[in-house]
């Protein structure tokens, strides 16, 4: 279950109803897919073959098509990151800059953990959304954010796109953001 940390106050928001209500208010979609549906050998596997990726997509085919149908996503794929990913540290450095996209950034976590850092409304400021397997999030088009891994540096997620070109990152220079 996702947890929120408000960066300005260090306040944490926990519990499905509170997390969903908070994210709703910030226009961030939050849903849940059942993590135990995934075959057990894939629940802790972070270096994936094409067959593994196909198995994950097949497991969540109904959830993917339901979400895509409601929100006009046309394509989807799997991203897997772990210590075995070549140049992981460089990749993470590239990720860790506030940016926007011209379409939603959708991630359904199927294994591991990760954090979206998102710019909320003026009163809220930046907040962290700590995600684990089963958490599904969509950061709206144009909303400044970035993504990083948690300490164990392991994640597998389904990504959904309207068109992959829409996911090109536009840097967002924000003097209000302090890491
Ligand atoms: Fe992004």
TrEMBL record:
Residues that hold Ni(2+) according to the record: 99, 101, 105, 145
Cofactor(s) annotated in UniProt: Fe(2+); Ni(2+)
Annotated site residue numbers, Important to generate the dianion: 107
Listed transmembrane segments: none
Keyword Amino-acid biosynthesis on entry: yes
GO MF annotation terms: dioxygenase activity
Residues reported to bind Fe(2+): 99, 101, 105, 145
InterPro entries, sorted: ARD, ARD_bac, RmlC-like_jellyroll, RmlC_Cupin_sf
Keywords: Amino-acid biosynthesis, Dioxygenase, Iron, Metal-binding, Methionine biosynthesis, Nickel, Oxidoreductase
Cross-referenced Pfam families: ARD
Keyword Disulfide bond in record: no
Enzyme class name: oxidoreductase
Gene3D superfamilies: Jelly Rolls
Known pathway: Amino-acid biosynthesis; L-methionine biosynthesis via salvage pathway; L-methionine from S-methyl-5-thio-alpha-D-ribose 1-phosphate: step 5/6
Family the UniProt entry places it in: Belongs to the acireductone dioxygenase (ARD) family.
Function: Catalyzes 2 different reactions between oxygene and the acireductone 1,2-dihydroxy-3-keto-5-methylthiopentene (DHK-MTPene) depending upon the metal bound in the active site. Fe-containing acireductone dioxygenase (Fe-ARD) produces formate and 2-keto-4-methylthiobutyrate (KMTB), the alpha-ketoacid precursor of methionine in the methionine recycle pathway. Ni-containing acireductone dioxygenase (Ni-ARD) produces methylthiopropionate, carbon monoxide and formate, and does not lie on the methionine recycle pathway.
Subunit structure and binding partners: Monomer.
Name assigned to this protein: Acireductone dioxygenase
Organism: Cohnella kolymensis
């Amino acid at each position: 279950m996702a947890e929120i940390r408000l960066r300005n106050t260090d306040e944490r928001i926990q519990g499905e109803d509170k997390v969903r209500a908070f994210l709703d208010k910030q226009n961030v979609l939050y849903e849940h897919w059942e993590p135990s549906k995934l075959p057990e050998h894939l629940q802790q596997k972070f270096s994936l073959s094409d067959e593994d990726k196909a198995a994950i997509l097949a497991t969540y085919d109904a959830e993917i098509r339901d979400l895509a149908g409601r929100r006009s996503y046309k394509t989807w794929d799997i991203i897997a990151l772990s210590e075995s990913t070549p140049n992981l540290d460089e990749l993470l450095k590239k990720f860790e800059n506030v940016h926007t996209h011209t379409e939603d950034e959708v991630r359904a976590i199927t294994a591991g953990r990760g954090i979206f850092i998102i710019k909320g409304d003026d009163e809220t400021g930046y907040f962290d959304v700590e995600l684990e397997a089963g958490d599904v999030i969509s950061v709206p088009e144009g909303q400044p954010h970035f993504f990083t891994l948690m300490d164990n540096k392991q994640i597998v997620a389904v990504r959904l796109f309207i068109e992959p070109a829409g996911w090109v990152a536009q840097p967002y220079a924000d003097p209000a953001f302090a890491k």
